[in-house]
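User: Modeling request: complex.
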Amino acid sequence: MDARRTAFEAVFTRHHAAVLRFVQRRVDDRERAEELAMDCFEIAWRRFDPAAPFELPWLLQTARNLVGTSYRRRDRERSGLEQLAGVARERGGADDLERLEVRLAMEALRPAERDVLQLVYWDGLSADEAAEVLGCRTSAVWKRLSRARSALRKRLEPEAAASVRFPEKGVSDLALD
Amino acid sequence: MRWTEEELDAVIRAADPAVTPAGAEPSAAARAWLQAIMAKPEPVPGPAAPRRGRRARVAGWSIGGVIAGVAAAVTVAVVVTTAVPAPAVAVTPPPLEPTPIATTLPQLMAASIRTLDAEPAGTLARNGQVVTWQMPDGKDGGPIVPERYEWVADGDGTGHLKVVTDSAYSVVDGKVTAPTGNVPTPGTTVAPQRWANGRGLFPEAPPSDGPDALAAYLRAHVPLPASPDAMNYFGALSILLGEWTLTPQQHADALQLLEKTGDLRVLGRVTDRLGRDGVAFSIHSAKRPQFTVTVVLDAATRRIIAADTVYAGGVDTIEAAPGSVVEYSAWVAP
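Assistant: Request completed. Predicted assembly structure:
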């Protein structure tokens, strides 16, 4: 069992920050976020099998379920972001304003688009890993990512509507799985 | 403000509100917490991941409580149907119906490659046209409206995709019928589809130097996994076929590449969704067992003319029965 503990401690060291960051984006109370992150690792410990170790997507999927229905941050955050963006515009803090406006634009996206953007850009997951967290096909992740980027760009750059990196639908994208 | 793709990537990343730095070591408090967790009575290991969604809950209940073999699975289906509101199942096109043939895969491939090699050289052309459909996310069905994608050269070295609707249809009792409800007139423009660089995914001409050169070319243009299998390669090939009309030799290279990298099985003679006679084989992937791909070769020329992606089950969020076609493509001469 020592080997199991050692293996799990390695998983914990490798992924604790990523799990905590994932929860912090969804829960505004920092102590509550830390509790939820540790709840996630407690579940992981109960299920941990060194012969079939899970990695970050499994942990984030678990964290996502834990945050689940108690997640009520979005409306408050969106309201707060709008106020902050207004203040930043008046005071001219360009970098802060840009970050706030990007976050505000992301909050306005459809949940499926917002989720995939966050998993890929903020959690640093590959399309395969994001698909595991979201429970969808990798091809769906690519499509959602393309749509999300396009939708975000439209919100941030209303004049730039037509240019997208990938066609939104069409030929098989199993290559990307 | 107009951001480049890279600048957009950067501003999205910079907007991350998480306060803990990426890659930070766990704090001493977190490590102590972990030790407390691990000091609890030893658990029984179990690798199953938490599952989400309506289908996941139904599956978990039925598998855990009832299933004991194939016969029981039938019982479970009945129980689920009567005790739990049935999940919406998407309307999907009927699967192709192959007529078995007495041919092994090596025989089929060898005969197809001989046929392709015997054809006149043909001309590689920077164009492509495909009629395609994908099961939409989050919808329960309705008429099936395929789309026709055409790569259109703009005359300055760039191009764009022209996307219009194709003939819609409904599926009733597994059979194609006239569409019900409001459907767009065939030829209705779907949306402007313009690549950021105007050059598509495959701006350089594909090689004609054998399957290895083709594999290298595909890997250079599409973000394939580190060790692509035939299903990965076919996904990339299907995109290529939408941008280029390949020569018979290149089709032969593609068949050799698929044969050497994957689990292929002969299905038999089929009629594809555009009414063309063909011979079909399937691609299976150990990495992606949730799907198989049915590839159709033209019966006479043995060029790749169509493909179906068939759902084999195991994905909670796909609300279609195993065996359903969740995507198809039929390539046509521009």
